[in-house]
Automatic annotation (TrEMBL):
Keywords: NADP, Oxidoreductase. The keyword Cell division does not apply. PANTHER family: HYDROXYSTEROID DEHYDROGENASE-LIKE PROTEIN 1 (PTHR43086:SF2), VERY-LONG-CHAIN 3-OXOOACYL-COA REDUCTASE (PTHR43086). GO terms for molecular function: oxidoreductase activity. This is Short-chain dehydrogenase/reductase SDR. InterPro entries: NAD(P)-bd_dom_sf (IPR036291), SDR_fam (IPR002347). One of its GO terms (biological process) is fatty acid elongation. Gene3D superfamilies: NAD(P)-binding Rossmann-like Domain.
């Protein structure tokens, strides 16, 4: 049984123009799911490739999900479709001292990383509950497990996504809805360019994150991508908070703060 038969005919992927979002789109297209691809940048070329290669339907929405007024556009497009999977992938971070960025940047980050997943999940769950099947995947982060100096607001937003996803898993696990939070560490995407960092060592491929997510969907509420990231989180649980923050500060400064 492919994902279209298991969950429904349509999947929504936010942040779909590149990186992890694009890899999710490729994976779902191979599973014969029609796609609604959402991001600020044009996805027409990607949509054309998916249609030609997999014979699916693809709708593209070139909108900014950090603007709450754009949510009505998404709702109008999806409310009458057989939505089977929602991938809450869109997000961004900014590195550096907390005061390096203005409140407008932080507001957009919170809107995109936190408010947009809440809004989209609310719409998608109504559709999924009516047919008693569906799946929602949240893109968390390694920093969701550890407050991270020089990425303070971003790590807070990812902790929000992790908590939200886990709570919804508890609510809907017996109602036919699979919910998962996938938490990658440094990954080879455009995220680090936007954030203003080099990404550090041990970067994973975007396709690795997607494979980890799809292998875990329906089996657990959350998953860390990559053995090194699992070791780091596990070790952090046995270290006092003050010491943990001191270690994290040194690591984060080497990755996120430019000389």
């Amino acid at each position: 049984m492919n994902l279209a038969d298991k969950y429904g005919k349509w999947a929504i992927v936010t942040g779909a123009s590149s990186g992890i979002g694009k890899e999710f789109a490729l994976y779902l297209a191979n599973e014969k799911m029609n796609l609604i691809l959402i991001s600020r940048r044009s996805k027409d070329e990607l949509a054309k490739q998916l249609i030609e290669k997999f014979g699916i339907e693809v709708i593209t929405l070139d909108i900014d999900l950090s603007k709450p007024e754009n949510m009505s556009v998404v709702q109008k497009e999806i409310e009458n479709r057989d939505i089977g999977i929602l991938i809450n992938n869109a997000g961004f971070g900014k590195a550096g001292d907390f005061t390096n960025h203005d409140i407008r940047t932080y507001t957009e980050m919170i809107n995109l990383n936190c408010l947009a997943p809440v809004y989209l999940t609310d719409i998608a769950l109504e559709i999924m509950l009516n047919k008693k099947r569906g799946a929602v995947i949240f893109l968390g982060s390694l920093v969701a497990y550890q407050p991270t100096p020089y990425m303070s607001v971003y790590s807070a937003t990812k902790s929000f996504d992790l908590t939200l996803g886990l709570a919804l898993y508890g609510e809907y696990k017996k109602k036919g809805i699979d919910i998962l939070v996938v938490n990658p560490g440094p990954t080879k995407t455009e995220f680090h360019k936007v954030a203003g960092s080099d990404g550090g060592f041990f970067q994973r491929e975007a396709a690795d994150v997607v494979k980890t997510a799809m292998k875990s969907l329906g089996k657990k509420p959350a998953v860390l991508d990559g053995i090194i990231n699992k070791i780091l989180v596990c070790a952090g649980r046995f270290i006092p908070v003050k010491l943990s923050l001191a270690i994290t500060e040194k690591i984060a400064r080497s990755i996120y703060v430019k000389n």
